[in-house]
Amino acid sequence: MTEEVNITPEEIEAYCQKLKKEAEAGGYHLHPDPEIVKALAHGILVNQQRLGYGSCPCRLASGDKDDDLDIVCPCDYRDPDLNEYDTCY
Questions:
Q1: Distance in angstroms (rounded) separating the CA atoms of residues 28 and 12
Q2: Which of 30, 61, 56 lies closest to 43, judged by CA?
Q3: CB 65 within 8 A of CB 52
């Protein structure tokens, strides 16, 4: 059975702003399509509620934070994905 998670549009928007600020502080830019950014933010927030940590929705989380530290956003695969695909997620 899948646990119900409710994320409000306001929570998504606030998290998008946080992601943007953190990305730009690190010299990165978010995807130019805001709908893609919102989908990413939603996925991270869902994982935060379900698992207790914000694992990246592009990778399958085990449910054990110590095992998933490499996929907590920003994940260890961000830069290799940027180099190969010009985008992550």
A1: 20
A2: 56
A3: yes
What pTM, to 2 d.p., does this model score? 0.87
Q: How far is residue 46's CA from residue 73's CA, in Å, rounded to a whole number?
A: 13
Q: Please tell me the distance from the alpha carbon of residue 27 to that of residue 7, in angstroms, as a whole number.
A: 28
At 25-62, the pLDDT tens digits run: 999 999 999 999 999 999 999 999 999 999 999 899 99
Where are the chain's structural domains?
9-85
CATH number of 9-85: 3.90.460.10
* Whole-number Å distance between alpha carbons of 10 and 18: 12
- Which residues are CB-neighbours of 62 under 8 A, at least 6 positions away? 68
Q: Of the candidates 8, 40, 46, which has an alpha carbon nearest to the alpha carbon of residue 23?
A: 40
Q: Cα–Cα distance between 89 and 86 in angstroms, integer?
A: 10
The amino acid present at 21, given as its one-letter code, is: K
